[in-house]
Write a structure and sequence with these properties.
The protein is flat, with a radius of gyration of 25 Å. It has helices at 9-17, 19-26, 31-57, 83-111, 117-142, 147-171, 184-210, 227-254, 259-284, 289-311, 328-331, and strands at residues 179-180, 314-315. The chain is 69% helix and 1% strand. Strands 1-2 form a two-stranded antiparallel ribbon. The longest helix has 29 residues, at 83-111.
Length: 336
């Protein structure tokens, strides 16, 4: 049996006043625990994107026609509603799972010793992004799945994935100043890759907003542009990202770069190839829902892969302890 410490009145007041500090005073997680917590938040940020895509692809976007309630006077679906309501409501409930994962990451980062303020800031940034996107998701419902708000909803989810990926990487690094592992020319090329990937994701939201999957069985406004033309532009950007990735790998190989950047670039290249195959298959098969959902998952993995390549270009070792100076006794000459 493990003795559970009793809490006195002062402890209770301290817990209510600052629960994170109260937990941190009594728990020191292992570094692996903090890493797993950050990874859980990252995984859930991807899951919520994929399930959000499932809502749209099953025409369940208005399964709960209002927000924050599901129907007028009810927070949950009623018997009069159908399976679309269950899908939409289930996606809303997953937001709480995402909040729990982000909360765990914040608590673990706050409790780590020594306290790394940079990690807790990344955790809180995720929290506010989740809250902001939850509100934006409600606005999407209230405006009847306006495609521009849907696009903003996805982009804000991508921002959440970005912060979560950075936090996961930072949990495996120290807080010392970053040291570059490659030359400036390689860094500049990777930044071109990042910009191309951002454009790829942004144009992908336009394809979604103009395409046939409106998110609901009723007539929903689409972006007034030929989606096939935008899809071709999306494909061109995808090939640019693939080309830049291969160029990065070739240059890193030529300059005998460290294993980390090479491995991350190779992984991104393989993800891009798989994503490209899925993209072309879904285009020529007229966008079947299953393949579109897999493509959305691939979009998240591509973006995470690009971020990992960028972050692999430097290292941040743990802060080196200060070297103590000579003691007073050592500096005072002894008499013969």
């Amino acid at each position: 049996m493990v003795d559970v410490p009793k809490l006195n009145r002062a402890d209770a007041v301290a817990a209510l006043r600052n629960p994170l500090a109260f937990i941190a005073d009594r728990w020191t997680p292992e570094p692996r625990t903090v890493q797993r917590a950050a990874l859980a938040a990252l995984v859930m940020s991807v899951v919520i994107v994929v399930t959000g895509g499932a809502v749209r692809l099953t025409s369940s976007g208005l399964g709960c026609p209002t927000w924050p309630e599901c129907t007028d006077g009810s927070l949950t679906p009623t018997q009069a509603l159908n399976y679309h309501s269950a899908i939409e409501f289930g996606n809303r409930m997953l937001t709480y799972v995402l909040c729990a994962a982000v909360g765990w990451a914040i608590i673990a980062a706050r409790s780590e010793k020594p306290h790394r303020r940079s990690l807790t800031r990344l955790g809180w940034a995720q929290f506010w992004l989740v809250m902001g996107n939850a509100v934006l998701g409600g606005i999407v419902v209230l405006v009847g799945l306006n495609p521009y708000t849907v696009a903003a909803h996805f982009l804000l989810a991508t921002a959440l994935t970005t912060v979560a990926a950075v936090m996961w990487q930072r949990t495996r690094e120290g807080d010392a100043a970053p040291r570059p592992l490659v030359g400036k020319a390689v860094v500049q090329l990777v930044w071109f890759l990042v910009v191309a990937a951002v454009l790829l994701v942004a144009v992908g939201t336009v394809v979604t907003g103009a395409g046939p999957h409106a998110g609901d069985s009723s007539a929903v406004k689409r972006i007034p542009i030929d989606w096939e033309t935008v899809a071709k532009l999306h494909a061109v950007l995808a090939w640019i990202v693939v080309t830049l990735t291969f160029a990065c790998w070739f240059i890193l190989k030529a300059v005998d770069a460290p294993r980390g950047p090479l491995a991350r670039t190779r992984e991104l290249f393989l993800i891009l190839l798989a994503q490209g195959v899925i993209g072309y298959v879904q285009y020529f098969t007229h966008l079947p829902e299953v393949l579109v959902g897999v493509h959305m998952l691939g979009s998240c993995l591509v973006w995470i892969g690009v971020l990992r390549v960028l972050l692999a270009l430097r290292e941040r070792p743990g802060a080196e302890p200060a070297v103590p100076g000579p003691s007073a006794e050592a500096t005072v000459p002894t008499s013969a």
